[in-house]
């Protein structure tokens, strides 16, 4: 099993017919007894010729699902296979002898994932206060560090930018997609800067290697602020701000208003304000 090249190699005691291969008949399991974590392949193909050896090229979705299971195929001792007789036939059409789940075969060769994950896309939703980041492989959401993320107004590091704080949180949407939930402070900092993430062309992502690691503990490939990744989409804030607090200081002749999000001071119309003695 080679998780770095996304492949499984099989060796038979006689020539098999590769066009009869049914990869979905194969089960990966973390113990010979089949009592732990396991994963049934959903697909796969081969470029091998008829013979005693073949290589199954795993699908991206299967590889990511395997990597998402914390105890499966993480070492030589946690990688076993079993399969039904529907896996493949010999040249005469005889089905392969099955291998029971309760007596899985151990791997002879195991190659762990040694390739660092990469950010491939991201989107920003300022109405929900969320940044979705997509990777090219399964990542470990519990290792996520929002403070390693910066949003900038351009991809060259010349425009304004906002680096998120540890107050923002990271959670998994799927094995390859993380959601960065913006804290109120971070959301307001972005909204306060009219040059950052007001459109796709003003929204670029950079991340430090400490942002997240994959299931093998490999840190993500950093995206430098001078070579930022452009957003796939930006959703504008469409929720009206709410007034949280009003304080009147008659000595200073000032009225203080506090809102739940950043507001545009130049758009304030004081003629829309009324002071009343009672509520209602």
Structure overview:
This protein has 280 residues and is mostly beta strands. 6% of the residues lie in helices and 32% in strands. The strands form six sheets. A five-stranded mixed β-sheet has the order 13-14-9-8-18, with no helix packed on it. The radius of gyration is 27 Å and the shape is elongated. It starts with 6 loop residues before the first strand and ends in a 21-residue tail after the last strand. The mean pLDDT is 94.
Can you count the helices? 2
Can you tell me the overall shape?
A: elongated
End-to-end distance, in Å?
71 Å
In terms of per-residue confidence, which ranges show pLDDT below 50 for 5 or more consecutive residues? none
Sheet/helix structural class: mainly beta
What fraction, in percent, of the residue positions are helical? under 10%
**Roughly how many Å is the radius of gyration?**
27 Å
Mean pLDDT, rounded to whole units? 94
- Order of strands across the widest beta sheet? 13-14-9-8-18
What composes the largest sheet?
Answer: 5 strands, mixed
The fraction of residues in strands falls at 25-35%
- Compute the number of strand runs: 20
> What letter string, H or E per element, gives the SSE order?
EEEEHEEEEEEEEEEHEEEEEE
Fold blueprint:
Elements: E1 7-17, E2 26-29, E3 38-40, E4 51-57, H1 60-67, E5 80-83, E6 89-90, E7 105-106, E8 119-125, E9 130-135, E10 139-140, E11 149-152, E12 161-163, E13 169-174, E14 177-181, H2 184-192, E15 204-207, E16 213-214, E17 229-230, E18 233-235, E19 243-249, E20 254-259
Parallel strand pairs: 8-18
Antiparallel strand pairs: 1-4, 1-6, 2-3, 2-5, 5-7, 8-9, 9-14, 10-16, 11-12, 11-15, 13-14, 15-17, 19-20
């Amino acid at each position: 099993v080679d998780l770095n090249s996304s492949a499984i190699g099989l060796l038979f005691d006689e020539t098999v017919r590769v066009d009869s291969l049914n990869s979905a008949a194969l089960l990966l399991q973390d113990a010979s007894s089949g009592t732990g974590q396991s994963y049934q392949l959903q697909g796969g193909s081969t470029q091998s010729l008829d013979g005693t050896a073949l290589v199954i090229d795993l699908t991206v979705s299967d590889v990511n699902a395997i990597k998402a299971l914390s105890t499966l195929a993480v070492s030589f001792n946690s990688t076993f296979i079993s399969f039904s007789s529907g896996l493949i036939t010999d040249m005469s059409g005889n089905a392969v002898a099955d291998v029971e789940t309760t007596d899985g075969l151990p791997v002879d060769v195991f190659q762990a994932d040694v390739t660092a994950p990469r950010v491939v896309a991201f989107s920003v939703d300022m109405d929900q206060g969320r940044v979705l980041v997509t990777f090219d492989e399964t990542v470990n959401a519990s290792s996520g560090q929002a403070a390693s993320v910066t949003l900038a107004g351009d991809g060259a590091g010349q425009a304004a930018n906002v680096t998120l704080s540890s107050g923002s949180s990271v959670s998994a949407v799927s094995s390859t997609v993380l959601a960065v939930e913006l804290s109120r402070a971070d959301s307001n900092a972005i909204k306060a800067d009219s040059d950052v993430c007001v459109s796709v062309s003003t929204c670029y992502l950079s991340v430090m290697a400490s942002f997240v690691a994959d299931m093998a503990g490999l840190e993500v490939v950093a995206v430098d602020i001078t070579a930022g990744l452009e957003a796939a989409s930006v959703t504008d804030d469409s929720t009206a701000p709410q007034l949280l607090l009003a304080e009147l200081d008659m000595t200073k002749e000032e009225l203080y208003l506090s809102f739940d999000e950043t507001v545009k001071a130049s758009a304030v119309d004081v003629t829309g304000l009324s002071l009343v003695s009672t509520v209602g």
